[in-house]
Amino acid sequence: MTDAAFSLAIEATDGQARVGQLHTAHGVIDTPAFMPVGTAATVKAMTVDTVASTGAQMILGNTYHLMLRPGAPRIEAHGGLRRFMRWDGPVLTDSGGYQVMSLSKLRKLTEEGVTFQSHLDGSKHMLTPERAIEIQCQLDSTVTMVLDECTPFPATEKEAADSMHLSMRWASRCREAFKQRDGYALFGIVQGGVYPDLRAESAAALVEADFDGYAVGGLAVGEGQDLMFEVTAATTPHLPADKPRYLMGVGKPLDIIGAVQRGIDMFDCVLPTRSGRTGQAFTRYGTVNMRNARHADDHRPLDESVACPASRDYSRAYLHHLIRSDEILGMMLLTWHNVAFYQQLMAGLRKAIRTGSLDSFAAAFSADWAQGDIEPL
Amino acid sequence: MTDAAFSLAIEATDGQARVGQLHTAHGVIDTPAFMPVGTAATVKAMTVDTVASTGAQMILGNTYHLMLRPGAPRIEAHGGLRRFMRWDGPVLTDSGGYQVMSLSKLRKLTEEGVTFQSHLDGSKHMLTPERAIEIQCQLDSTVTMVLDECTPFPATEKEAADSMHLSMRWASRCREAFKQRDGYALFGIVQGGVYPDLRAESAAALVEADFDGYAVGGLAVGEGQDLMFEVTAATTPHLPADKPRYLMGVGKPLDIIGAVQRGIDMFDCVLPTRSGRTGQAFTRYGTVNMRNARHADDHRPLDESVACPASRDYSRAYLHHLIRSDEILGMMLLTWHNVAFYQQLMAGLRKAIRTGSLDSFAAAFSADWAQGDIEPL
Fold this sequence. Notes:
The structure is a homodimer. By secondary structure, the first copy, chain A, is of the alpha/beta class. Chain A folds into 2 domains: 7-237, Queuine tRNA-ribosyltransferase-like (TIM Barrel, Alpha-Beta Barrel), CATH 3.20.20; 276-370, no CATH class. Chain A contains 15 helices and 16 strands. Chain A has helices at residues 48-53, 63-68, 72-77, 81-85, 97-103, 129-138, 157-177, 196-209, 225-235, 253-261, 271-277, 309-312, 316-324, 328-354, 358-370; strands at residues 7-14, 17-24, 27-31, 33-36, 59-61, 91-93, 105-109, 114-117, 124-127, 143-145, 185-190, 213-216, 245-247, 266-269, 280-283, 286-289. The longest helix of chain A is centred in the C-terminal third of the chain and has 27 residues, at 328-354. Chain A is globular. Chains A and B meet through helix 13 and helix 14 of A and helix 13 and helix 14 of B.
C-alpha cells in the first residue's frame, strides 16, 4: 500500500498524550508505537512473520551495521532494506552516528563529519550528513534520520550547546541533501543535553527547517528516568502538534509509559530482544530471569495475559530448561514473548488514551510492575 | 489420537522398499520416515510448529542428554517429553548408550551396564538395560530403544561378536523390563559390525525375543556407504516384513535413498539441523556453503522446489548475509530449509515406491546430486 503523503492523523488525546495513525509509503502504523530493533537486517532470533504476528508494524535498522555489512549499495541492488529482509511495513533507520561513537575505532569528529574504522575489519569510512542521507536512501528507508552528535552525559552547558549547534548545522545539511519522496520522511533530532533552554533552541531550529518528524535524542544515556522525563516534558511543547515525535533508544516499560504521557509517539529499544537472548523475560510484574532454578518445576506458562504462543503455550520449566541448556529455541521464544509484551503494552497505552484513562492505566501498570517479579508458585 | 496397537500397515512395495503407515499411540506416520533430532527436548533452532510444518511427523530425543538435564523425573512430572516440548506427534528416544560412549567421561562398561560421569557437571550415573527402559518410560517415549553397545569400527570378528552378544543379553533384559502399553513400542537393535553372519545371528536373536520394531545399529560410524549398504542389505531379509525397520543415525540423502531401496522404513540424523547451524544448505544439487562470497549478490531463493518459506521466500544474498553476520535467524532459516528438504525427499521416496518408480527416482536424484552444487548464476 502506498500513501501519497507521510502524515500523522491524531485521533484522540489524553493530557499531552496522543493516539493516532502514521501514514507512510509502506503502510499505516498505530501510534504510540514501539519499533523492534532489526540491527543487521534482522530482528535477532525472529522471523519477520513472527515480528508482525506480535502486532509490530514498523521496525528499526542500524545504518552503521548495514553500511559495513553487507553494504548499502548491495542492499540497494536488492531493492532496499525492506525487500532484503522481507519486512512489508515501514522501516526507520538511524543515521549511524550513535554506533560510530559507541562501536567503531579511531573516530575523528570534524565539522565535515566523522571518520572511523570498522569494528569488524578495521576498514576506514567517513560519515557526513550528506553521506548518511545517501546511505539511508540506498537502504530505501521509510524514515531517514539526520546525522547528529549524541551529546555525552554528563556534559557542561557549554559542551552541550556546542554539540547541539554542530548537530543543528548537520541537520540543515541533511535537510538539504534529502530528496523528498511521497510517503517517505526525514526526521530531525533535538539535542541539548539536560538543559531545557538548549532543547528549546534545538527544537526551534529544527522546526524552522521543517522536518517530517522530530526525534528527541541524547537521552537514555545514563541521566536516569527523572531527568529523562523532565527533558522530554521540556521538549515536546516546542514541537509541532501534527508531526510525529520519536524518543530514541527508549526504553523500559515505565520509561515508555512516562514518555507517552509527555507526548511521545514512537520508540525503539534493544531491551526486549537483547533481554530475550539472555534469558530475561518481561512481565507485567517486572522482569524475571528464566535461568533461575525456581522455574525448573513450574508448569505454568510465562504470562497468559500476553496474546502470544511463546507466552502462553510453553511452560516456565521448559523455557528454563532451554535457557539453561543454551538452546537457540530459548532465545527465540523469550525474544518473541518480550516483543509481544512490548506490543501489548503499546496497544494498552493506545486504548487508554482513546478512553481518557491513561493516568489510571499508568498507575495500575506501575503498581503491578513494582512487585518486581512474576507471582510465586 | 490414540491407536490401540502399534503397527505398520504396508501399502505398497517396490523391490525391497516399502511404503506404509506406522500407527502409534500418538498418531500415524508415513514411512519411509525421517525423524529430525530433538536432542535436548528441542529440534535446535526450530519451534515444534515449524518442525511440523515441514511434514515431519515424528522426532527423536536423546536419553543421555535428557537424563542429565533437566532429568527424567522432572520431565515425567511434566507429563512426558512430548508435553514438555509441545510435540503432538510420536517421539522415539535412543537408549543413551551411544552418547555415553561419545560424550561422557570415565566410562566403565560391565555386564551389568555402564557407569559414567556427566560431561556437564561430572556427576556420576549408571545406565543399565533396566534403567534405560525406566528412563524412557519416564519420558513417555512412543518408541523406546533397547540399551546396546555400539560396536566400534573397525572391529575384528571376535570383537564384533562379543560386543553383539552383550547387546543381545541387554536386549533380553530390556524386553523383560519394558511394560507394554497400547500404541507404545520397544525396538531391538541389530549389531554385529560389518559381518553378515553376526548380523543374521543378532537379527534372529531379536526376532526370537519379539520386538515391536527393529533397528540396524552400529552403522554410519566410518565404514563408508558401500559397506553400510552391504550390511543393511544383509540384515533386512532377516527381519519380519510386517515390523518397522530403523537405520540409526543415517544420514546423507543418498544414504537414505539407498537404505530405503534395501528395506529401511525409519531414519534419524543430526545432519540437516547441525548443517543448518553452520551455514550449510542441502539442495537437490548437493550441499552448498552459504558463507561463500559468491552468494552475496544472488537474489534468487535458495531452492524454489522445496515447499518451505525458508527455501522460497528469502534470497541467497540475504541468507549469506545472516550467516556471515552470525545471526540466529540465519541458523533458523537454514535449519528450517534443511529439515524441509529432508521431508520433501522422504515424500518423494514414498511416492516413488507407490508408483513403482523408486529406481528411476534414485537415479535422477543421484544425477542431480552429483553436480555437487546449486546451479551457478
